[in-house]
Amino acid sequence: MSLFRLDTSVLGTRSSTIALADLVEREWRAALPDSPVVRRHLGEAPLSSTHWGAAVAAQFVPPAQRTAEQREALSLAASLVDELVAAEALILAAPLYNYGVSQHLKTWVDLLLTDPRMAAGAESPLTGKPAVLLTARGGAYGPGTPREGWDHAIGWMSRIFGEVWGLDLTVVERELTLVGVDPALEPFRELAERTRTDSEERARRAGRNLALCKETFPA
Ligand SMILES: Cc1cc2nc3c(=O)[nH]c(=O)nc-3n(C[C@H](O)[C@H](O)[C@H](O)COP(=O)(O)O)c2cc1C
Over the stretch 116-126, which tens digit does the pLDDT of each residue have? Predict the structure, then answer.
């Protein structure tokens, strides 16, 4: 069973989502020691956002008249879709930045959506594919918090990955990761520790389940 793993954090070794994704991958790897992994780390190697505009513009131009830039953008989009189609399971690690998704993740998604296979109205080639989404946020935006609803990443990601792409999505969330960094969050230390251990346990479980999907998801 092949795995595709996406990382998007810009925080390197301090990243909470990378740490959670590592736990998922470790459990998956323990069950499937010989299976291949394809990785894409947008935090380290972002895609250029100019590709997206070129790929969109190309759709209004007959193939023979497309510029080299437009052809390159479409070819990149196709290869990004190929990576996902070829994998039998996905790990997607995507933090909250500035109340939304990172520009690197948005660029990747936008470019993927220019490929005809992923277009609105087409049956998604990813339908039913098992995926684990790991997300982390420095604060907390749940019911009753002062900024309830300010996390505009998780809703969008769930719509795109779960509903638009049709992935069989398991979401693991960790919050209050800025406790210890932002003094205003100090009263929430205990809660932060609890969400850390809970999210780690859920990530391990998700990794074990991802490996089990081998039997149920056709290659
Ligand atoms: C540039 C930047 C912007 C951030 N914006 C927010 C934010 O709007 N809300 C929030 O709760 N945390 C915010 N954070 C904190 C991150 O969500 C938190 O550090 C999370 O653990 C990031 O995941 P990562 O460690 O995998 O990168 C921000 C962090 C960075 C570096």
Answer: 999 988 899 99
